[in-house]
Design goal:
The chain has 341 residues and is an alpha/beta fold. The chain has 14 helices and eleven strands. Helices cover 49% and strands 19% of the residues.
Length: 341
Amino acid sequence: MKIDSIVRALDDPTRLRIMRLLADMELAVGEVAQILGQSQPRVSRHIGILCDAGLAERRREGSWTFLRQTISERSPHPLAAAVAQLLAAGEACDPSFAERCAEDRRHLAAIRANRENAAAEYFAERADEWDRVRAMLGPAEKVESALVAALADAPIGRLLDVGTGTGRIAELLADGASHVVALDKSPEMLRLARARLQRLPSEEWELVQGNFSALPFKTESFNTVVFHHVLHYSHTPASTLREAARVCGEGGRIVIADYAYHEREELRRLHAHVRLGFTDEQMLELLSESGFAPSAPITVPGQELTTKIWIGTRQASLGANTGASPGAERETRLIEAERQQ
């Protein structure tokens, strides 16, 4: 960040209003235009200036582009923290600017409500499907409570929720985490997660569109990685877990809540499940070969299906892989075993 670029970027009342909106929550470019009552091309130009100055960043989710603020009063970067404090003080001390910001936030409340209504409609349309799956699993609260308890003995730190779906697990663990990143490949699911998480402080969480097979994060950038009923969608779970190990720092933890092995073949057809759950032996071997020291699994009985919670602690860096890895060989054995069952 450079002070001259920041000063020029903030030398406009519209851009000041955008920054105060982003201090509350992440917004789509179209939502910013709606709140400000300006055309989207004009708003996009203002956003470009803010991004060029390092005050905000854009991220695409399908056909939507979302904008988030990159500064906060708690930022470790002194200049970023100072700018955030200046903007907050400007609103507090300038009555006319404060009035304009208050009006913007009234429109922002409508955006929040629209997101929540859209999420409710989505689930209402699919209520029967969700109810059938929930009936198999039993009360979700049991799995959630067991997952929280499994993480209670050490700080969560930076959390990656892989396949966040509706954002429920990210929301559940947010209070104990220093920062939450919720990842999903589906823009529709990310919109549901945004509706759920939008009441949390905006600097404490972020949504990222991506695939668990190629996580868009730097090596060793998280302390805790969670897969909640996600891994059974993976065609190559060994590769998926090696990718999770790459982004998990040494001493960090992976938590996998998923089905114990079952024979409900119809779940492949009805819900696109790739794996019919996992045995303890399969999962413990997968964890070990991915660089995690596994703990004893936890069993959570359901109505028709049992959920298991497997936890592993990230060991020392594995270093560069050469040739075929044990995990790749195990992947082949897993696929062949399922074909024979």
